[in-house]
């Protein structure tokens, strides 16, 4: 393939993820996006939701759920003249570390907000993460078929709480039972909503122009007048869309609609595919790598087990940063210094796992992993590069893990270290005793670990409570001071799965005091892979 064809392929790519608070409608909008991308034939096939709540500790159930969400981990589909990669972020709050790392692999985000609720907790946290790289954000105000909050107030809340300017692209006409549709500010047209058509791509009625009397007739005089008045206010009080501010992550275009009713999702997709950036550069320890570099490079941001229950393999998800992947090509696995020939990477076209013959910067490919690949690993065509910015987060929950059968200590340790390399959990070995402490960001991780230890390592383990409330990775430039620190507080020191020194604190107060006492030691809440 010629260089200019490769460049064209790359320029077509748009790689994004959805950020939202649980229940805001991420799953529903994903489904509708796939419907528009013709990756599925009718809505209702992405995830069997059944009666809603599932037993959270039931691993089989979870596996089932994961099994389904796994095939939708990355979804590639064409839309307009772009090729879209939508990366799923785990829905459950508990897997937040994975979510954070997934956000390092995208170039833009769709923020979905429940318009009846406004900005919620988890959205706030995820926005903080996108801020680390100034990721451009497109906003969808969802659930307009319900009674929502005043739209002006919603924009105001986004601006003040998330510190990003809002540029409404569409504006709602009524909500709940009175939801009539939206006025598209850029197209100067009103698109009318019909309820009950959410599972299909609808034929919509469009009315050109704001002063068109057809509008009054279609939505009722009162609502048409209200719309005109609101728009005057909106134009005065909010921002106009600005591509540069959007790309800098300082301004977000805002769309209104209902994912359930499949209304407005296409407006959002039109905007996203037009404005969102093509594959962006990434930083390595050595230099910045741009998508246009002719040599292939990529980094692993996620490892997932049991994608296919018949093959007990693990898939390492790699974001291609530059160049092109072709089947059978040789790649250098930089951390272990080995060159490997990759002939069976998977791509995710149209929601199906398929063997990738080629893929380009911006795409995600899945590598079969038999334990050699770790999160954060870099692959190149020979160059010594190490991508940065793929963090581990200090866990917030801790338990001591113990064997039912004490003879299996070795397998337990091996299992835990491998699971920690995958990012499923973190493990700490205190310097002063033989305990094994498992640390997690979310409580569900504990259950997953015990179930996987049993299934994959044939180890029966159980948890006990442990007096640890927080952990920090510690570093010191001055070897002598670090040494002294290690001697004085050894009772609170441990090695993590990668043998990095960690301070495990029984209380926050203890951590604060220790930090004050040892000003030359750095205490870090994140660790780079
Ligand atoms: P999540 O992935 O962000 O957690 O949200 P999800 O899409 O699962 O949606 C959460 C709930 O909100 C679901 O209802 C879903 O049907 C509903 N929902 C999503 N979009 C809209 C919308 O535009 N309008 C309305 N009225 N509801 C919406 P549920 O009762 O939890 O699930 P289900 O049993 O109805 O499927």
Automatic annotation (TrEMBL):
GO terms for biological process: regulation of translational termination. The keyword GTP-binding applies. It is found in: Cytoplasm. Pfam families: EF-G_D2, GTP_EFTU, RF3_C. Keywords: Cytoplasm, GTP-binding, Nucleotide-binding, Protein biosynthesis. Its main location: cytoplasm. The keyword GTP-binding applies. GTP binds at residues 20-27, 88-92, 142-145. It comes from the Bacteria. PROSITE patterns: G_TR_1, G_TR_2. One of its GO terms (cellular component) is cytosol. PANTHER family: PEPTIDE CHAIN RELEASE FACTOR RF3 (PTHR43556). This is Peptide chain release factor 3. The gene is prfC.
């Amino acid at each position: 393939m010629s260089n200019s064809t490769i460049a064209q392929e790359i320029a077509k790519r748009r790689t994004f993820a959805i950020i939202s608070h649980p229940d805001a409608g991420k799953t529903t909008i994903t489904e509708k996006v796939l419907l528009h991308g013709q990756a599925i034939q009718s809505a209702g096939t992405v995830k069997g939701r059944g009666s809603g709540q599932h037993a959270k500790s039931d691993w089989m159930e979870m596996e089932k759920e994961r099994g389904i969400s796994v095939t939708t981990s990355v979804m590639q589909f064409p839309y307009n003249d772009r090729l879209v990669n939508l990366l799923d972020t785990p829905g459950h709050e508990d897997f937040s570390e994975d979510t954070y790392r997934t956000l390092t692999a995208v170039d833009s985000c769709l923020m979905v907000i429940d318009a009846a609720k406004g900005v919620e907790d988890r959205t706030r946290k995820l926005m903080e993460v996108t801020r680390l790289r100034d990721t451009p954000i497109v906003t969808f105000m969802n659930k307009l078929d319900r009674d929502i909050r005043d739209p002006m107030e919603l924009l105001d809340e986004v601006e003040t709480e998330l510190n990003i300017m809002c540029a409404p692209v569409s504006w709602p006409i009524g909500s709940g039972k009175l939801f009539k549709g939206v006025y598209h500010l850029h197209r100067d047209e009103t698109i009318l909503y019909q309820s009950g058509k959410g599972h299909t791509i609808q034929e919509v009625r469009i009315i050109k122009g704001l002063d068109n009397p057809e509008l009054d007739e279609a939505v009722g005089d009162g609502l048409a007048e209200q719309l005109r008045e609101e728009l005057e206010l909106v134009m005065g009080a909010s921002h106009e869309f600005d591509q540069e501010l959007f790309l800098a992550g300082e301004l977000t275009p805002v769309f209104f609609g209902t994912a359930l009713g499949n209304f407005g999702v296409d407006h959002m997709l039109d905007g996203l595919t037009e404005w969102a950036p093509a594959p962006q550069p990434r930083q390595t320890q050595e230099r910045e790598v741009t998508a246009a570099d002719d040599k292939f490079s990529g980094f692993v941001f996620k490892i997932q087990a049991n994608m296919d229950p018949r093959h007990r393999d693990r898939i390492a998800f790699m974001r291609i940063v530059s160049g092109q992947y072709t089947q059978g090509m040789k790649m250098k696995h930089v951390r272990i210094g080995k060159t490997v020939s990759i002939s069976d990477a998977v791509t995710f076209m149209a929601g199906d796992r398929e063997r990738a013959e080629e893929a380009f910067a911006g795409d995600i490919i899945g590598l079969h992993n038999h334990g050699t690949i770790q999160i954060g690993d870099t692959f190149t065509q020979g160059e010594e590069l190490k991508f940065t910015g793929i963090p581990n987060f200090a866990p917030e929950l801790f338990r001591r893990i113990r064997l039912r059968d004490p003879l299996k200590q070795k397998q337990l340790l091996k299992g835990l270290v491998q699971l920690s390399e995958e990012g499923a959990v973190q493990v700490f070995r205190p310097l002063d005793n033989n305990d094994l402490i498992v640390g997690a960001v979310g409580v569900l991780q504990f259950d997953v670990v015990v179930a996987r230890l049993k299934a994959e390592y044939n180890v029966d383990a159980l948890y006990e409570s442990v007096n640890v409330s927080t952990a920090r990775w510690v570093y010191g430039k001055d070897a002598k001071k670090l040494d002294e620190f290690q001697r004085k507080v050894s009772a609170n020191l441990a090695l993590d799965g990668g043998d990095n020194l960690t301070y495990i604190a029984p209380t926050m107060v203890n951590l604060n005091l220790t930090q004050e006492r040892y000003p030359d030691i750095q205490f870090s809440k994140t660790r780079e892979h």
